[in-house]
Design a protein that fits this description.
The protein is mainly alpha-helical. It has helices at about 10-40, 50-60, 60-65, 75-95, 95-115, 115-130, 140-160, 190-205, 210-220, 220-240, 245-250, 250-275; strands at about 165-170, 175, 180. The chain has twelve helices and three strands.
Amino acid sequence: MSESQSAWGRRETLSCLIILAALLALYFPFLKKLAVDWGTNDDYSHGYFIPVLTGYFIYTLRDELRRLVIKPNTYGLLAVVAGLCQLIVAKIGSEYFLQRTSLIIVLLGLVLFFLGYQYLKMLFLPVAYLIFMVPLPVIIWNKLAFPMQLFASAITEKVVYLLGIPIYREGNVLHLAQTTLEVVAACSGLRSLVTLFALSGALAILSALPKSKKLILFLAAAPIAIFANICRLTFTAILATKIGSDAAQGFLHEFSGMVVFFLGLGMLVAVNAVLGKKRPQVQ
């Protein structure tokens, strides 16, 4: 394909809309099932927001994108073919994660094939951000969740003990004086980890920080999610001790989940502010 020096016009916009419509038609059955999963899988209920955020990221880049020269690259076709092959193989094997992530590969390939490397460079992170809408395979999720259950249980035991509350742990089961709490998969912190990584990724993309600090901001989601989950489990143990086991499983337990979410979000915003703080210049 030859290089085009023209800016975005009606022809390019119309071509883009036709390609997106064809892609939507091809992936509609897979996206429909994905949307159902968002409504039934509490671990990925944030999935509804991810495509919207990706659209917003691209919208914020509109002026810079208009200034780029359209320079199609045939290597993009290889990525498109690779993505479609992944879709076919995953469809045959009924593997949802590969079916859904093939869309991201195809989108990136189309950007490179029709628009060129400079567009791909600018749109890579917004499009790759769609990975946060795709639930991990169950086998991988469970492999990650159980060690995190044990880790969260062990740390919570030590924190609660330091607070002067008698506690004894057996695996992921915490024995208190008046009740017993089991740190189930939903309390492993993996859900918070996935959600906060999606949030820190969005903050990093929108932030004006240098690339190295964007990476630090993104990775900060891991310790923040673990800390916030330990706070929630400790709070639950205190509720169970002071008020009773019903309080630890009812409204206050659910409310503590929301508090932990906003605590994690606040900490991410604080990290972003600290990283963006300029050092005073030495006279």
